[in-house]
Design a protein that fits this description.
alpha+beta, 403 residues, single chain, Cytochrome Bc1 Complex, Chain A, domain 1
């Protein structure tokens, strides 16, 4: 029987992961290169280099007549692209992989055009969460949560054709991770690399609803934003809190997801107190995000400017449990149910599965570990919640943003 998932490592370091997604007519190919070991100068230029790589891929697809959708992939651990295609076009996409991977640096005229385009994107970032994280020392918008948007914009603005050439060479020297997710019926050609070094991993057949862990970053989805309660006024503000977190492979990851869901979900502790009882806030969002070597937690709360101090105090109290915000068994059960639902809903497409498989590979984790998330989630106890809150959430940093 053909395995539903396989990992192949080739002599040049390229890793190809194949996962089947039965009953879906779409296919996805994620191509990523790790940036964690690259110098900050190269990571700062990642938005520019990735935009050019995507443009190169569009040209390759047009040359071969492949109708695909290509989007940039900019994550703290890796950069690359996401390619979506119909299942019948996947063999042609796979046959084009050598061209997709062999990108050259833009020349002077093309570089000027892409510089303007990327700068407009960086300077147009208006998300309160990203602005808040940026004010706290680094945004998760692109390739690092320790490099600010301003630093990225300055690097892109000063990038010369020679700089682009040198940094493209550095990026091209990093081995690629290619994750392919497709329907059971898709027939793929042999990848265009030597197969003398191969590691095949068989996985038990999965159901049509994949049981894989959410968020690319590869963490649980953020609690949904609530927009009732206090109404956003003209003089509105946002309070952004950032806490310590864990890496993708940490055994504390499920407990942190539950803790943040208890705190920041629509029926969570912060929502009940700040929005439903006191009407101090009009929106609340909270989440935990994990990467290869590090992670963090964050919440962003929309409120009136004259409520910023009071909201900040209540958030600080909530993040220092135990206290008046001590969670109950019913909080725990509801949070687990929400996370299980989000877990399944967030990975219903080949695109999501392919991106998660790349993130796990780059983090050095067997991609089969994605199937173990729900089991670990079910084991989380109230004692676990108290422990991770005290260890990771008790010393938050705050940013206050006014409109």
């Amino acid at each position: 029987m053909t395995p539903l998932a396989a990992r192949t490592k080739h002599p040049d370091g390229t890793v190809v992961i194949r996962r089947r997604h039965p009953g879906n007519q779409l296919a996805a190919v994620t191509i990523a290169r790790a940036v964690t070991d690259l110098a900050p100068a190269t990571r700062l230029l990642a938005p520019l280099l990735t935009a050019w790589w995507v443009q190169h891929s569009h040209r390759v697809a047009a040359r071969h007549g492949i109708p695909v959708v290509i989007d940039p992939l900019l994550l703290p651990d890796c950069i690359g692209m996401q390619i979506d295609a119909c299942s019948q076009d996947l063999p042609t996409v796979c046959a084009s992989l050598p061209e997709l991977l062999s990108v050259s640096a833009p020349d002077g005229d093309e570089l000027a055009d892409f510089r303007i385009r990327v700068l407009a994107q960086l300077r147009g970032i208006s998300s309160p969460l990203l602005r808040g994280l940026d004010a706290l020392g680094g945004s998760d918008n692109h390739t690092s949560h320790t490099l600010t948007i301003g630093e990225q914009a300055s690097a892109v603005q000063g990038c010369s054709a020679e700089d682009a050439f040198q940094h493209t060479r550095l990026l091209a020297a990093v081995a690629s991770v290619i994750s392919i997710c497709h329907d059971r019926s898709a027939v793929l050609p042999e990848p265009p690399w030597s197969t003398r070094t191969r590691e095949m991993i068989a996985v038990q057949p999965q159901s049509a609803t994949p049981s894989v862990h959410a968020q690319a970053t590869a963490s649980a989805p953020a609690a949904r934003t609530q927009t009732t309660g206090a109404s956003p006024a003209a003089a509105s503000a946002h309070v952004v809190a950032r806490t310590a977190g864990v890496c993708l492979s940490s055994p504390d990851k499920p407990a942190l997801h539950v803790a943040w869901s208890i705190l920041g979900h629509g029926q969570g502790i912060l929502d009940q107190y700040l929005r439903q009882r006191r009407a101090l806030a009009y929106s609340i969002r909270a989440f935990s995000k994990e990467h290869a070597a590090t992670g963090y937690g964050a919440c962003v709360i929309g409120c009136a400017q004259d409520m910023v101090d009071e909201v900040t105090d209540h958030v600080r109290d909530a993040l220092s449990m135990p206290g008046r915000y001590r969670p109950t068994e019913s909080n725990l059960i509801a949070a687990k149910r929400r996370l299980r639902i989000q877990h399944h809903l967030a990975l219903q497409t080949p695109r999501d599965i392919a991106i998660r498989a790349c993130c796990y590979e780059i983090a050095g984790i067997d991609h089969r570990a994605m199937e173990e998330y729900v089991g670990a989630l079910n084991e989380v106890s109230l004692d676990d919640i108290q422990r991770v809150v005290q260890e990771y959430l008790s010393d938050p940093r705050f940013a206050r943003l006014t409109e």
